[in-house]
Write a structure and sequence with these properties.
Strand order of the largest sheet: 1-2
Number of strands: 6
Structural class: mainly alpha
Helix content: 55-70%
């Protein structure tokens, strides 16, 4: 199964290249991926025929007890047959459906194959969290397929609606999965179903949440509106996603969970009521449609309601009937959608009011459509008839449900006739449609599906034997499927439904006013628009009230929430009852007093630069506390971060007024001070409470031994960052890359990778040209220059860089590491910039910041791959012993490469900030001729 998933992934990645080479014909080799899944499922028929299972398990995330647990049983075997078989035929059909040079064909082919792989993974997943991953992948891929025609607003709207509805349902379903997994102690469904289930409200809530996701995915009321709108997708997408695959995911989930959860209180009421309402509403809406594709879409909604009722009923009879109907529906509905695509292809439209006489010019196409529509209507000897009779038989003991099913079946017969009549019949007053020839490659896929439905009817007994193991999960084996059971109640009700459907079609003229009036007051699509527009309006109103453009107001709201919510809980916990040691040596309270005085003075400061420096004092004081507590790594990092922050503030303050605004008034100042004091007290209390709340030994006690044994280093802090908790660091450096990109995107008005600044005209040239280092004299105005600063920069720059590299390589066993070394190197670049301006920065770092960031991230990720190759675990350190001349025996730990990546990312981040908040702001000042502290500077730095 894993090999099949990888095959689909490879095919999806190769699809754009194959389409570029062969155009639409690339769909033929791409069809081999789903065809392989179909063939594999056929080869496993014997393994699942007697109730067995094919199981594959691969380790994945051991910390979460999450494995790639794949399991093939009777129900998933049936779904794999549909996903693979119909998927292969749809791709073959697409080779002729799309013309050469069609816009977006490469994307369509790749996404369709990827969707097939995601559906395959969904139905064979035995782990609920893994199932959810594939569930959301199908949502994303369906969004891309529905919105294939990106130039059309209807396609974009339909894709967004499908994504919104199914994603929200999927999130609710995830919460239900988490509830079940928390109760069971794991997420392996086969284990959860075999263990006792929770009772009462706990299980009821989990069931309701899971059913919300299933109903949303299968377009069952109240989530039906997205499916008809999704008909904006190309017809092959409709035939696959909305007939055989995606919309079946919710039905499959109901069938998967029903053996264990059907006994839960809300299960049957929800599935039966929602399913019956959907069946009737969808069938009635189908009778009003004039677009053949929309007619089939509403018919699909109706049939999905029927499947939800039958498969969710939780009895052995209904389970057998539901699986038979699942297969029949995929065969006839996919065939009919493909037929509509052919009609649209040869006639140039699919409005049944404009089509006439196509049946006479395309008899083979009409025959294929008749077979598929007859199966949809439940006529013998097709599989649809067998499945419909089994459904009616399963509910003979529930009269109300049975009567509704008969009514819904009559509607199905009526819209099946309407489809054939609208697509192929000739009508008076309407000229015959000029239809071209039907390409054989387009006709073959729907013909195979229709013939399969015909052949499966007489073979119902054999087919029922294959599906019987699933039905036996609910109780004793039911009566086997058969084409003929003799005269019985189900046969009579079938005849009544067929007669009723024929009558509805014959009376379509007199019934037209009723069809027009009898509908929901608010359509599903209109309701969706009202809801989304309502949320948009609420968001606008809330934003207009809360987002006033005042950073102090935003921060005050956050801090006030912190004081009120966690602060209230803290008061209930009474953390002050915990014993507290005020200090270990006299230096600690002295530093705390300095920090407190600096904080108070910062609040009272009127100049921005003064406030910034005082805040920096609090940061340096915190670093001194780290020193006193024996944490040199933390102290070094704090010193460097504080220094880099001061440089950043200096760059920003150039564009701000020298003094703070005269506002706020005295009263509001006291309010802000009160919020600040309260927030400080709450944070101190929470820290105290957290320190005294520990009940078990800290896992960090094992870190020193692990650092030496597995990380091969004595600096526990650095080894923790690059080995023990390397996944955390990976996430943090990814955030740094995103932050750097965001800063540059906000500041730069042109490409970040544009040309380097032009050298000033004062630069020596010609044969007497000399290499000039630190170009301050040629680029800065004399009032902005500092000779002492330039000389000091020349003296220390290379030494600082060497020191940063020393910190990088020594950090595994001594204070330092990639983060500290990168900050030191970044500060060295900051000194070069401050001494010589943006030209000097370009000379010091003649490389793009994006290149440095990308290289650093690639190196870090690559080091994780090395660990995977040699140890089987991502980011696991590997020790490589070496013998080098002069040095003798030494060793290298692969985590050093992870640290090098961190080093490069930090340097790239600082470089990006210097070029955006520094060099780019300089360029803005020069370009606009702005005054900088009373001095107007032109491009060359001369006074004007």
């Amino acid at each position: 199964m894993l090999v099949l998933l990888i095959l689909h992934l490879v095919a999806a990645l190769l699809a754009p290249l194959l389409v570029r080479w062969w155009g639409p014909r690339a769909c033929y080799p791409l069809a081999l991926a789903p065809a392989a899944a179909f063939g594999w499922a056929v080869s496993r028929t014997g393994a699942v025929r007697d109730g067995g299972a094919v199981v594959e398990t691969y380790p994945w995330i051991a910390q979460l007890k999450l494995d790639l647990a794949l399991r093939l049983t009777t129900l998933s075997w049936l779904m794999v047959l549909l996903i693979g078989g119909v998927g292969a035929l749809v791709l073959v059909y697409s080779a002729r459906y799309f013309a050469a040079g069609s816009v977006g064909l490469a994307r369509f082919a790749g996404v369709l194959v990827a969707f097939a792989g995601a559906m395959l993974g969904l139905v064979v997943s035995d782990d609920l969290l893994l199932l959810y991953v594939f569930w959301e992948l199908t949502t994303v891929f369906s969004y891309l397929l529905i919105g294939h025609s990106t130039e059309r607003r209807s396609s974009r709207w339909a894709a967004a609606q499908a994504l919104t509805v199914t994603t929200l349902g999927g999130l609710a379903m995830l919460v239900g999965f988490l509830l079940l997994g928390r109760h069971a102690g794991g997420y392996r469904w086969s284990a959860i179903a075999a263990a006792p289930l929770p009772g009462g409200r706990y299980l009821a809530v989990a069931v309701l949440l899971i059913l919300t996701g299933a109903l949303a995915k299968s377009a069952v009321l109240p989530f039906s509106s997205w499916l008809p709108v999704a008909m904006a997708a190309p017809t092959p997408v409709s035939a696959y996603l909305h007939a055989a695959a995606m919309v079946k995911a919710g039905v499959y989930l109901v069938g998967l969970l029903a053996p264990a959860l059907a006994v839960a209180g809300p299960w049957r009421p929800v599935t039966v009521v929602a399913g019956l309402a959907t069946m009737v509403a969808g069938g009635w809406a189908a009778l009003r449609q004039t677009d053949l594709k929309l007619l089939l879409a509403y018919g699909t909604v109706s049939q999905l309601g029927l499947l939800t009722v039958v498969i969710g009923a939780g009895t052995s009879k209904a389970a057998l009937a539901g699986t038979a109907m699942l297969l029949a529906h995929a065969l006839f509905k996919a065939a009919l959608f493909l037929v509509v695509g052919i009609i649209d292809h040869i006639a140039g439209g699919r409005d049944l009011r404009e089509l006439s006489g196509i049946g006479r010019t395309t008899p083979l196409l009409a025959g294929v459509a008749t077979l598929a529509a007859a199966s949809m209507a439940g006529l013998p000897p097709l599989l649809g008839f067998v499945a419909k009779e089994a459904v009616l038989t399963a509910f003979t003991d529930r009269p109300l449900v049975l009567a509704t099913l008969v009514g819904g079946t009559a509607l199905t017969v009526a819209y099946s006739i309407r489809f054939l009549w609208g697509a192929f019949a000739g009508r008076p007053g309407v000229p015959d449609t000029d239809a071209g020839p039907v390409p054989a490659a387009m006709l073959a896929p729907p013909a195979l599906l229709a013939v399969a439905g015909l052949a499966a009817g007489p073979a119902a007994g054999w087919l029922g034997g294959l599906l019987r193991p699933y039905a036996e999960l609910f109780g004793p084996a039911p009566e086997p499927l058969a084409l003929w059971h003799g005269p019985n109640l189900a046969l009579g009700l079938s005849a009544v439904a067929i007669a009723g459907g024929v009558a509805l079609h014959l009376l379509r003229g007199p019934l037209a006013p009723a069809l027009a009036r009898l509908r929901f007051p608010v359509g599903g699509n209109q309701g969706y628009e009202w809801v989304t527009h309502g949320f948009d309006r609420v968001a606008i109103e809330v934003t207009s009230v809360t987002q006033r453009g005042s950073l102090p107001q935003y921060l005050g709201a956050v801090l006030l929430t912190l004081v009120l919510v966690p602060g209230t809980a803290m008061l209930a916990a009474r953390p002050w009852r915990t014993g507290v040691v005020l200090w270990d040596n006299p230096a600690q309270p002295t530093i705390c007093v300095v920090i407190a005085v600096a904080a108070v003075l910062a609040v009272r400061a009127r100049r921005r630069l003064t406030a910034m420096l005082l805040v920096g004092v609090t940061g340096y004081g915190t670093a001194m506390l780290f020193v006193l507590y024996g944490a040199p790594d933390l102290a070094l990092t704090q010193f460097l971060v504080e220094t880099a922050t001061i440089v950043l503030f200096v760059l920003v303050l150039r564009r701000l007024p020298e003094r703070f605004s005269a506002r706020p008034l005295r009263r509001s100042r006291w309010v802000r001070r009160g919020i600040g004091v309260a927030a400080g007290l709450v944070l101190a209390g929470l820290a105290l409470d957290a320190a005294g709340a520990r009940r078990v030994p800290s896992i960090s006690r094992d870190f020193p031994a692990l650092a030496v044994a597995q990380g091969y280093g004595r600096n526990v802090v650095n080894v923790t960052l690059v080995d023990i908790r390397a996944w955390d660091t990976m996430g943090e450096i990814a955030v740094l890359v995103v932050a750097a990109t965001g800063v540059a995107s906000l500041i730069f008005e042109r490409s970040r990778t544009g040309p380097r600044p032009r050298r000033p005209r004062a630069t020596p040239s010609g044969p007497d040209r000399r290499t000039v280092w630190l170009r301050g004299g040629a680029t800065l105005h004399e009032r902005r220059r500092s000779i002492v600063f330039e000389v000091v920069t020349r003296l220390i720059f290379h030494t600082v860089l060497l020191f940063s590299i020393f910190l990088l390589f020594s950090g595994h066993n001594a204070p330092g590491g990639g983060f500290s070394g990168g900050l030191v190197a970044g500060l060295a670049l900051a000194v070069r910039y401050l001494a010589g301006g943006r030209y000097e920065l370009a000379e010091a770092a003649p490389v793009g910041a994006g290149t440095v960031l990308g290289t650093g991230l690639a190196v870090s990720v690559g080091s994780g791959v090395v660990g995977l190759i040699f140890t089987g675990s991502v980011l696991q350190s590997v020790k490589v012993d070496l013998w080098l001349p002069l040095l003798g025996h030494c060793y290298v730990v692969t985590s050093i490469f992870f640290d090098i990546g961190v080093y490069l990312i930090v340097v790239g981040l600082v470089l990006d900030i210097l070029r955006s908040l520094g060099a780019e702001v300089d360029r803005h000042i020069e370009a606009t001729g702005e005054s900088e502290r009373g001095l107007v500077v032109d491009r060359e730095g001369d006074r004007t």
